[in-house]
Amino acid sequence: MQNLFSTYKIKNLELKNRVVMPPMCQYSVEKKDGIANDWHYLHYVSRAVGGTGFIIVEMTDVEPDGRITDYDLGLWSDEQVPALTKIVEAVHSHGAKIGIQIAHAGRKAEDAAEPVAPSAIPFDENSKTPRALTTEEVKGMVEKFRLAVRRAVQAGFDAIEIHGAHGYLIHQFHSPLTNKRDDEYGQDLTKFGREIIEAAKAEMPADMPLIMRISAREYVEGGYGIEESIEFSKAYKDAGADVFDVSSGGEGQIAAWGRPGTHAAYQVPLARQIKEALQVPVMAVGRLDDPILANAVIGNEEADLVQVGRGMLRNPYWTLEAAKQLRKENIVPKQYEAGF
Ligand SMILES: Cc1cc2nc3c(=O)[nH]c(=O)nc-3n(C[C@H](O)[C@H](O)[C@H](O)COP(=O)(O)O)c2cc1C
């Protein structure tokens, strides 16, 4: 019987437990150069000291105008690699594994003078109207993802997550609400995401897993549901996605996005449905910061890995406390034993 503290292996990624820190933007690149700094180092390394099995670095963007804000991380330049390597090495030295989320915000790039998107449809009445990418530019964007993934591999990450959720660029392409194109990337809504997965896999060692984060349903009126997301996820699986990280929403107003997310485990049924329909490993996320509940999600085989986001912002040692509460093997570092 598996539990939150069982080991897990997918391809070459071997995890000591099932607890994952999901990507969470820190908006802390004060120099606006996309380079990780001391804040990022301490933020990620402290969760490794805190016993987390797998850490996913926040949304890291493939070009400057792909950032939500100018304070986001980037991987559009080789100069951005060494600071990430330093984080990777330190996280490894504390026994955790680490991936990175590669992304483009598309029409949700708030600081871009002119954001780009599949079609010229703004996020809401307060947002800039994006410019629709030309077909050639879409192909160029796939190459930008490829180069960012190449740099992430150079930095030493153990896995790559592609951000296909929360209303950002890849989600904008596969959602009929935001993709009104009449070229090949509009006739086939998953073509852009598939090409990114294929380009990423071509840069990754064959035994390194690729994780695809999706919004398994939209919350705005007329948005897609689980049936449609099962279909597009099949296309992404065929393109090479090894694991699905199942989130939801983000395509519309925060008010609408927040609607379902008030109770514990609200996205777990979506993760379970993707897992069952596709027979793929899945990561569940969303208000799973009660260890008993997180443990149940693994024990009931609803997901293979559990992510704890805001819970880890509150407590970098969430995993140590969960192990104690669940009466698992003592994983507390000896320096901190007096505190437990
Ligand atoms: C401060 C903050 C920043 C976030 N940034 C990202 C991000 O960079 N990429 C992403 O896919 N999700 C992001 N999320 C969503 C989280 O990964 C997670 O899915 C969400 O917080 C729900 O999990 P939780 O209830 O455990 O916090 C962010 C959430 C928070 C609170």
What keyword list fits this structure?
340 residues, alpha/beta, eight-stranded parallel β-barrel, two-stranded antiparallel ribbon, globular, binds flavin mononucleotide
Morphology: globular
Number of strands: 13
* CA-CA gap between termini: 27 Å
Look at the structure and give the mean pLDDT: 96
Fraction of helical residues: 25-40%
Bound molecules: flavin mononucleotide
Strand content: 15-25%
Radius of gyration based on Cα positions: 19 Å
- Largest sheet properties: 8 strands, parallel, barrel
Spatial strand arrangement across the major sheet:
3-4-6-9-10-11-12-13
Q: Secondary-structure map with pairings?
A:
Elements lengths: L7 E3 L2 E3 L3 E3 L16 H12 L4 E8 L11 E2 L6 H13 L3 E7 L12 E2 L13 E2 L2 H21 L3 E6 L4 H6 L9 H4 L3 H13 L6 E6 L10 H14 L3 E5 L6 H5 L9 H11 L3 E3 L6 H9 L5 E3 L2 H5 L3 H8 L15
Parallel strand pairs: 3-4, 3-13, 4-5, 4-6, 6-9, 7-8, 9-10, 10-11, 11-12, 12-13
Antiparallel strand pairs: 1-2
The site of flavin mononucleotide (FMN) has 21 residues, from strand 4 and helix 11.
Describe this structure in words.
The structure is a single chain. It is built from twelve helices and 13 strands. The protein is an alpha/beta fold and 340 residues long. Strands 3-4-6-9-10-11-12-13 form an eight-stranded parallel β-barrel, surrounded by seven helices. A two-stranded antiparallel sheet has the order 1-2. Strand 1 (8-10) and strand 2 form a beta hairpin. Helix 2 (81-93) crosses helix 3 (135-155). The protein is globular and about 60 Å long. The two termini are 27 Å apart. The mean pLDDT is 96. The protein binds flavin mononucleotide (FMN). Residues 22-25, 58-59, 101, 163, 165-166, 213, 247, 285-289, 308-311 line the site of flavin mononucleotide.
